[in-house]
Amino acid sequence: MILRLLCSRFLIIFPTLGLLILILLLVLNNTPGIRQMQEQNVFDRYVDPLAAEAAFQSFQQRNSLDLPVFYYSILPAIFPDTLRYLSSHPDFTAFKKLAVLYHDRQKTKEVLDVLLALKLNEGKKAYIAAMQALEAERVNSAKAYDNAVISTANIRWQHFLPRFIWHGSHNQFHVFCSNLFQGTLGQSYFSGKPVSRLLAPALKNSVWLGAMALLISWLLAIMLAGWLWVNKSQRAIRLANALAYTGQAIPGFLLALLLMIIFADQRFLGWFPIITIGYDITFSSLVLPCLALVGIVFPYAFLQSFRAFQELGEEDYIKTARAKGLSEWQIWYHHALKNAFPPLLTIITGALPAMVSGAIVVEIIFSLPGTGRLLADAIMMRDYAIVLAITLVIGTFTLVVNVLADVGYRLLDPRVQYG
Amino acid sequence: MTFKKVILLSVALFAYACNQSDDIGGNENTVVSRFEKGPNILSPLNGYSDRISNQIISLVFQSLLTVDYRDGQIKPLLAQDNPQLIVTDSSTIIQYQLRPEARWGDGTPVTAEDVLFTLKLIRLEGIPNELISPYFSFIREFRLGESAQQFKFHCEGYSSGMELASGDFYVLPKHLLDPEQVLDPYSLAEISSIPAEESASFSSFITNYLNNPEGFAGSGAYTIQTIEEGRRIALKRKENHWLNELSSSLPYLASYPEEINFLIIPDIAAALTALRNEELDVMDNIPGNAFKRLKSSEAVQEQFELYTPESHQFRYIGLNTRLSKLSDSNTRKALAFLTDVQSMIDILEEGYAKVATSIISPDNEKMHHAALKAYIFNQDSAKHYLQAAGWSFDDQGWSKIVEGQKQYLNLSLLYRSGNNIDEDIGIMLQQSLRQIGIPLSLKAVENKLMSDRLRNHDFELFVRSLTGNPFVFNFKGILHSESAQKGGANYTGFSTQESDSLVDAMVVASEAAALKAQLSRFQEIMHEEIPMIFLYFEQHRIAIHRRFDPYAISGINQGYQLQTFKLKEE
Known about the structure:
Chain A has about 425 residues and is mainly alpha-helical. Chain A has helices at about 1-30, 50-60, 90-100, 105-120, 125-150, 170-180, 195-230, 235-250, 250-265, 285-310, 315-325, 330-350, 355, 360-365, 370-380, 385-410, and strands at about 70-75, 160-165. The N and C termini of chain B lie far apart (about 60 Å). Chains A and B meet through helix 2, helix 7, helix 9, helix 10 and helix 15 of A and helix 1, helix 7, helix 14, strand 20 and helix 15 of B.
């Protein structure tokens, strides 16, 4: 039964991941900013615009960004198939406008073929110059003819019917998935470095930190909630709740900064260095970030655990256990914990993906290179190969954790049935 | 296990962890410096946009020319002397002679073949070089000289920045990167037309080399010893470096520290704590308020020397002169009168900045137009210029009739999200404008999105910083009509016939006196037309441990060169 459940769940994971990759590719391909890769704030060097555009096109080719996103596109019938060979998104957009202006697929195709031949024989610069001249001509013509063309009955609505254009396996989705099946997550757009080499150490740090913090937080939270449930001291319950709510209200960065100042600043305790070295993250380098994360997670974990125990109330099985003469701790461990755990499992599994995605505030303050920092830096730099890989890893981990949570439910409570 | 046992175990582990500190500083002759983030691409072909990478790579590889931070002059590094330029009507020939002493790490001499090979790599398609390749398209041809150390660049046309640009790339060792002489059959002109498939295996070899910086074997004085991704980069000085013999006669090329450690500490509070703990020897980019606190701390003053050299970086407010509401220079002048620059310097930079009156730093006494006066905050003058531009004030605000329509003077300003100073400049301007009835809305935009919007002319006002160069005065990219079209970097759209011809003339100016006259007139035009409201030139804020004696502290780049830090004699 469990095996069947596992198989059925894992079968859903693959198409879900495929869809995730496709959506990510579509979003990242249409996110502005990547053309500003050469942007610099020093104005001493004048760059030939043609040379800059040629370099951008080489960059696109090296990273397969000149390919269509998926196996097919849906375009108005007026656009020729060869449109996809255009080097860049602006050229693509410009040519679409040109096709509308010409209103003749054959003519558009002929112009396009001349341009592509120019690129092949004369090089990128000649192609870019011709493209720019064509765009200038189009803008001028459009100004003169736009209204006339649109208003005349010449316009044939058939030209704007959607048409499937098949690209074959020469597309970004296929390239990425092929790499994935060969065990690589692609290469950084800018350095060409395999993404796995960047991701592995960051992931290791984040998982270690996240796992330790989650484990400590939830263990402490469940034990404290259990202690309060057993002792039933109203004063202690009020105090613990007040402290937990206060803890939840303290922003994570403030807590992390306070810990750093108290424990790492030589003017105070100065017990830890600000940054520790070594290929592996050492135990001492994880203590303060872990404490900070525990401080962030623990109040929430405690409040949820306490609520779960409170909701058990005075169930019959608890009264029976008490009548049998079991101690309060025995009742908590054998009965209360077992019954309160399933709802807590949902909350804990919901928090697990945070282990992989990293805790950016804590990573920044304690100079810990985790996935959170890597992702933020990659987004700032527009290195979408890294963004794609990290998002995919987080997505996969979330799906797997959810499958395991389903199995966990089933193991904890055999009454649970899945469709 | 009881609750008490868990607590006891945690305390014991915590106490154990306290004793696990590592020693980063090593010996006394190790410099520990801080970066706020890791290098984007640690590669000698990374271009100019990544100052962090450049700071590291310049210790490992060398270029033909360099800058002496003490006197601010361009000086030879791998080259024997500064190059000789022969300028004709349509081309320029730049002649170099390499130092005969220049050696790679394995003792092989640096030759003209290495320079040619590097230029080929800069142009080769299929390797990560796109950030640098556009800058060297001006070199058309390479010719070897009579000896293995002589060569010539043949360049198209002439511009005043050619001399520096021709020697401003890191030379790579051909004998290590192309032992099979794969690129030899191709000339420099042919290299970019090699089909990517043909050079695929070679490109993959080069990309692999570039992605393993620990294996870099440059002609510089240091090798990269350790890279801990996102945490630390450690460099070690070579035992017998070819410049050791020359450093007494060429002090700007000396290298003293045995090790240089770059720690990556993103958070400024953590970095300042590390500095106070003496875990860092050098820190730059210190925020004004923190720098002021460091200055007032006796403990810090005892350990660190604090420097504030003038930088070439300035902040400005750009105005979209294409818009009807900002097309009149009187309106722009009114906005300049409403910008309280002195308060911005006092409040936001704690006084560590100088009022800018033009695009040239006041510290560059030779080229700065000293007669230009700053626009001092004055509401009456602002109102006067608004009225001169045709605006009149009523209950709704300032308005005028444009093409039969009543247009109100309400503005919006873009600033880089996450940049507190830019945001505060916006807020201060907003308050000043509100006082005379001009509403200004502020919009935070991520840096690259902002560049996109500026290049597409989708803005009214923006605040940004820009870095000049004390050697080159080429404004063609940012203030010429050729760059004012969509996609160009002349965001403000400013150009006049006179300013265009001045910019063109300055690009080819070879005589200092003529250049100064052209530059003065250009600054006057900018001051009158105000496409940009110049705010201030920032000062670097640097702390350096007192046990080191830096060769020079200057406004160039980050302001210091770590390799020239010499231990003070007791």
